[in-house]
Amino acid sequence: MHDTDWDRIRIFLEAMRAGSLRGASEKLGVNHATINRAISRLEETYGTRLFDRSAGGLSLTQPGEALVEHAEEMEAQAFQIARKISGLDSHPSGVVRVSISPSLAHRFFAPILAGFSEAFPDIDVRLIATNQRSNLARMEADVSIRVADRVSDDVVGRRAVKFVQAVYAAPEYVQRVGPLTLGDGTGAHWINFRSDPKWIKASPFPNAKPRHLIPEITMQIEAAAEGVGMVLVPTFIGDADPRIVRVPDIPIQPGYSIWLLLHDDLRHSARVRAFVDFTAQYISERKRMFTR
């Protein structure tokens, strides 16, 4: 293969996944003409069409489908090589890319970053705030800070803490529906990620109705602060917002774990190890904040 073939293969894969030249262009950060030219030259190399092009986008031809499996094998090998090389650093310097949900980042990431920057001035942290799980095998991030019950076997996981949750609402909302919520929640409303009958029935207020489903904790709290309804959120997030209060006489609820995740190939990387160890220590020293 020529040296440039891998670049063209990579573009072919992104075009296949995006389903359009425009989508691949946006993903790779190159212009539309570059994508089109790379695919055309790849088709010239193999002497066959890899995509059928239409106004609706790109669709794989039979040769294109045959190429996908081999191209993905090349991609996996390329990522493995990159991870292995990246994990060989012995001095804590360079870049660490950290994937974290916006709600976690908003609540406690800034003080971690401040302390870490002082302790390791040669490491540059690049934050990826997203609710999507970053693919560590594809090097979308070096470290992922996630909330989960358990983690998959293909990553190295370190449980930082298991937190608890509580029911919160605006003080005015509690006063307005207080007599009702002392019972089963009739007349009250949940602000939640989704309408889940099983979750609601097992909650402290099984007759409260789900309302205004909102997919992100920070946005849920904003709605609760305006008196829209009740939220069940981690206490380390809810207690930090003076606009909402815990609903009285309701015990704390079981929560989940905060995990620090990395790929096995990076477990000995000095810069990655420094960030994971520092973050785990920071959370451990403040464990009470997460468990009361």
TrEMBL record:
Keyword set includes Disulfide bond: no
The protein's name in its UniProt record: HTH lysR-type domain-containing protein
Cross-referenced Pfam families: HTH_1, LysR_substrate
Record PROSITE patterns: HTH_LYSR
Domain HTH lysR-type: 4-61
Organism: Actibacterium mucosum KCTC 23349
Family, per entry: Belongs to the LysR transcriptional regulatory family.
Database matches in Gene3D superfamilies: 3.40.190.290, Winged helix-like DNA-binding domain superfamily/Winged helix DNA-binding domain
MF-aspect GO terms: DNA-binding transcription factor activity; sequence-specific DNA binding
The keyword Transmembrane helix belongs to this UniProt entry's keyword annotation: no
Transmembrane segments: none
Alphabetized PANTHER family for the sequence: HTH-TYPE TRANSCRIPTIONAL REGULATOR (PTHR30537), TRANSCRIPTIONAL REGULATORY PROTEIN (PTHR30537:SF3)
